[in-house]
């Protein structure tokens, strides 16, 4: 794998210390002063009779197991189409074969000692449907070494394998099938609690953090009783999830999957033997059977977490949001132009050829009765900006910004632990600047892996910002407050000042950015 090769060539690599786990002994590698353990199983294979069933403990092994290669890429649903030239926009991609033996994690630590370092547990993106923890962008050698933290990255079940809700058809045997993907994360967090000290970490100071779908996973864990006390702080990057699917919707999905395979409800167990590729083919077919969701700007996932009354009893940050995580400090934010990369396949947007009429039509599709006011606001705010760029700005607010605001407001209103809000404004020079500050641009700053994503993104000040961002994330993990001497004073968010840290070449705090349009998007999102 490219990440392994890069790690081996960057510096002298030696064998790591041997660490004893509950399943057996592990030995990884040591590079740049960091001990790295890859492909560590925290659960058994989920294939065959274990498909759609809760995770089982990994099979123990004898002797010393090598932990030097990435492993655990879950079967992948197709990602959204992208411009061919953007296929590797964020550096090398994970090309490992997919497997249902996917319950693995990776650990980076400066020392297998008793130092009790903060533990940062990474949840990868991919809309609960694709992605893995194996991306070179997530290589945590720099983050662990420079910030003196332990980093853990988790692989788990995705899409139809992690979130096919068979509970209303298959009874008790499949009662948790709709939430297995996030229950896998709970099992991984239990592994972290049990083993953190053996890797030089503090099991009493665990921060979960994730970007995009990973932010959705963080949001889900914040609402799950099973995850209570397994982590102590949370960071949501470009992925605030306010609501998840309800059982009426997920049951329709399950029925559509059975219909796809011409199986009656009495033959549900036969799904456990369907080949991986055939199962994945059912994803799009089943999703096409669904009506428009109740709240289109908030209901994001079909094969994702389910409000089932047990694993998730309530929506995480909507209406009667659960109180179980009120005492958990949270940091939450977005990039300035999230939607630029999602709109990139559209040639009219990419070539900045959208007209004012096009803009109105596209904004009306999401803003409804708020359309005139939304259009007037962005025209007034950015009169020189092209309609294409205003579309990127508006759809970023409707898809990401409104959810971040709702999550932050809900947290701040409870008043039991602080929430800190940020926005990353740094624009990549890649592709002539057309991507601006897009979705995922924050990841290599957090992990201090700008070298992985290539020269196309490099410009003066980028590494200085990466130093500042990675330090800020680690400071929050250490103390529950992101403030440090590389930043101006950063107050907690409240509904009066709405303080927001803006990360760029110069970092600054802005109170209530886009105050005039914020309530318009909230009304459009919540009805």
Helical segment count: 17
Q: How many strand segments?
A: 15
Strand-residue proportion: 15-25%
| Low-pLDDT residue spans | 1-10
Which CATH class of the largest domain?
Alpha Beta
CATH topology of the largest domain: Rossmann fold
User: What's the mean pLDDT score?
Assistant: 95
How would you describe what is shown here?
This protein is α/β, with parallel strands linked by helices. It has 2 domains: 2-246 and 302-314, 3-Layer(aba) Sandwich (Rossmann fold), CATH 3.40.50; 333-526, 3-Layer(aba) Sandwich (Rossmann fold), CATH 3.40.50. The protein is built from 17 helices and 15 strands. It has helices spanning 2-10, 141-147, 159-163, 167-170, 180-195, 213-221, 247-260, 276-287, 340-343, 347-350, 356-367, 371-381, 387-414, 443-446, 450-453, 462-479, 518-526; strands at residues 13-20, 25-31, 34-41, 64-66, 104-109, 117-123, 150-154, 201-211, 233-237, 245-246, 306-307, 330-335, 419-424, 499-503, 508-511. The strands form 2 sheets. Strands 1, 2, 3, 4, 5, 6, 7, 8, 9, 12, 13, 14 and 15 form a 13-stranded mixed beta sheet that branches. Strand 14 and strand 15 form a beta hairpin. Helix 11 crosses helix 12 and helix 11 runs parallel beside helix 13. The longest helix has 28 residues, at 387-414. The model is unreliable at 1-10 (pLDDT under 50).
Tag the structure with descriptive keywords:
about 525 residues; alpha/beta; Rossmann fold; 2 domains; 13-stranded mixed β-sheet; two-stranded parallel sheet; 17 helices; disordered N terminus
